[in-house]
Amino acid sequence: MSEMKWGWPVIGAALFLLSAFIPLIADGYWMSIAVTIAMYTALATSWALFSGPTHYISLASGAFFGIGGYLVATAMSDYDLSFWLMLVVAPLVSALVAALIGFATLRLSGVYFVIFTLGLAEMIRNLVSWVQNNFLGSRGLYVLTDFTEAHIYWMLLVVCLVIFVFGWWLSRSRLGFALKIIGNDEEVAKHVGINTALAKVLVFTTTGFFGALVGVIIAPRYSYIEPNQVFSPELSFMVVIMALLGGAHRLWGPLVGVIPFALVWETITIAFPNSTTFFLGLAFLFIVYFIPHGFAGLIEKHWLRLRS
Amino acid sequence: MIRRNVLKVLASTSIAAVTGLTMTFGAFAADTIKIGAVAPKTGPLAGGAVITQWPNVELWVKQVNARGGLKLKDGQKMIELIEYDDKTNPAEHIKAVQRLATQDKVDFIIAPYGTGFNVAAAPIYAKYGYPQIAVSAISDKIEELTERYPTLFFTLGTTTSFVEGVRDILVKMKDEGKIGNKIAMVNVADAFGIELADAARPIFKDAGFELVYDKSYPLGTPDLSPVMKGAKASNPDAFVAWSYPPDTFALAEQAIIENLDVKAYYSAVATCFPAFAGKFGSKINGVLGAGGVDPTTEKMMSYRAEHEKLTGKVPDYWASANTYVSLQILEQAIEGVGSTDKAAVTEFIKSNTFDTIMGDIKFENQFSNKFWTVGQWQDGVFKGVSSINVDGAVPVVEKSGWN
């Protein structure tokens, strides 16, 4: 295995380079699918960095994504600030929010944490709407730029790369090791001297950072931001479903979940435009029944069998 | 294990087969003209779209096909409609429009439902050159948007004109001594509601009104009774709500319970829906709302009759007619050019006048400055009382109680 130590990063870099050329060959339709895949890859992978090792299921992706989309829209349409400035500011704000939430809630465990994060997107949406309504005012939140789908795709691809490099580093770091111990048994982790709260909050903060970063990048694609659309609870669920479909215990797990999911979703939408939800439910049943450990588990099993 | 693998192969081949099928479906049919439509069938905006958007699409396609199709230079062509549900999700909408343009290769696309969706889809329409006659889209950025997207047309008006329409009605009632100068104003704390309330504050003040109550409530609030109680306690002469469909209904319900005693009561979106009168009957007589029609013209009467006959649904008293008008414009432009040349059709829309159920429609800088702003329920019909350049407004009446 030692000769493979640098093998995976090299393969990853090659795949990344290849995917950067997709906009040169894909037409508008396939580009719109590619953007969707890149967006969910970034969100699901950064979700799995925290939720994978710790087993804390976070439904906060929609909240962070919303903070990004909402801040960039307010700044650009009501204050004439630049997109690039918000690309830096919004993720920092979101990371701060994530840290505050983390300190307040990561002492909660199991189902309490899930329920809290579920309500989070709704709470933040109401909070920002209230602030905007009572103090700031608005003339409609427009994000008008000259970005094409290709530009948005490339930006998302860079975000994916950063998340993968960070994840790769994390899995080799003391922090990553601490998270794994916390995931296995939090009491043990405390007894061996790990500051469990700090470790959890640190990594949860990065999820908040990347969530908002993706939200900012996607905002020009929507052009007109409505709070109830960017702070979408549906997005939080999609991220979790895709990450679990792929397998949250491997860095590349969410990626192999997002791609087939996006394609199957598309096929269902085309074939059954009037009963998408029904067939999506069927697809879920199929996934849970036949691939309970995600694609990553499936691939690993066959890989091991091949080698033996 | 083998059984599982077999099942997996079966599943993937059936998915491939389904994809293949849908792709070949679009391939033949050379003697038709392909029209695409993307709008919500599910999600938060579906409730509005299944009243205002989809029935008009159905009506128009049925009517055109019943008369043998669209007349082009190379013969008459039946419409083949390809429709997708955007699930009230902008990302799904973008994908669906791209699919129509590059996979289905449709000849024309019917503009989306909702301001956000029209703005989000505009770059795609512009890129492929499809004319986009937006109806359910109200904005104060029309000039900037039409300059940016040369294929985008607006027909339902600006945010400011809607607020000014309400102001004009209230000023008139004040000048006639029917109401005093105290307004209680509430708004839903979401995109459009915030925008309208923000525009209204200075406009009402400049017109000599005093805002004795100014509160917002979050989108999806189940209980609006505190809002209505507060409004009532402020003793207003007029009540104005910049509201969305669910809260328009909930506010009226609370106003009836609290017996809000105002001579002018206005709620914004969905007041014009037939279901509003269906739910409250004669109690909402005199309620003002966004929109309006002139139901007495011969063209409008025959449109409403046809709509009910062919789709089984009653059209609303506002954007339903505008939506049908946008399809009439598209139809006349395609027949005027006599081909599916998108650039020529767009140019035709920019430079011609169209004979529609709302009278003559003409675009200046891609904007049709002819629309209803305020209507009022009068004896079971929602009649237009204030408009920009549309004839047929009826005098506004005082609201007298909720019974």
Write the layout of secondary structure elements.
The complex is a heterodimer of chains A (308) and B (403).
Chain A: H1 7-19, H2 22-25, H3 28-54, H4 61-78, H5 83-105, H6 111-136, H7 149-172, H8 174-184, H9 186-191, H10 196-222, H11 227-230, H12 233-246, H13 253-271, H14 276-290, H15 294-307
Helix pairs in contact in A: 3-7, 3-8, 3-10, 3-12, 3-13, 4-5, 4-6, 4-10, 5-10, 7-8, 7-10, 12-13, 12-15, 13-14, 13-15
Chain B: H1 2-27, E1 32-39, H2 46-52, H3 54-66, E2 70-72, E3 75-85, H4 90-102, E4 108-110, H5 115-128, E5 132-134, H6 142-148, E6 152-154, H7 159-175, E7 182-188, H8 191-206, E8 210-217, H9 225-233, E9 238-242, H10 245-258, E10 264-267, H11 274-280, E11 288-290, H12 298-311, H13 319-337, H14 342-351, E12 353-356, E13 359-362, E14 371-378, E15 381-388
Can you tag this structure with a few keywords?
heterodimer, A: 308 residues, mainly alpha, 80% helix, B: 403 residues, alpha/beta, Rossmann fold, 2 domains, seven-stranded mixed beta sheet, elongated
How would you sum up this structure in a few lines?
The complex is a heterodimer of chains A (308) and B (403). Chain A has 308 residues and is an all-alpha fold.
Description:
The complex is a heterodimer of chains A (about 300) and B (about 400). Chain A contains 15 helices and no strands. Chain A is an all-alpha fold. Chain A has a single domain, classed as ABC transporter involved in vitamin B12 uptake, BtuC (Orthogonal Bundle). The longest helix of chain A is centred in the N-terminal third of the chain and has 27 residues, at about 30-55. Chain A starts with 6 loop residues before the first helix and ends with a helix. Chain B has 2 domains: about 1-160 and about 300-370, Response regulator (Rossmann fold, 3-Layer(aba) Sandwich); about 160-295 and about 375-390, 3-Layer(aba) Sandwich (Rossmann fold), CATH 3.40.50. Chain B has 14 helices and 15 strands. In chain B, a hairpin with a 2-residue loop joins β14 (about 370-380) and β15. Chains A and B meet through α3, α6, α10, α11 and α13 of A and α1, β3, α4, α5 and α6 of B.
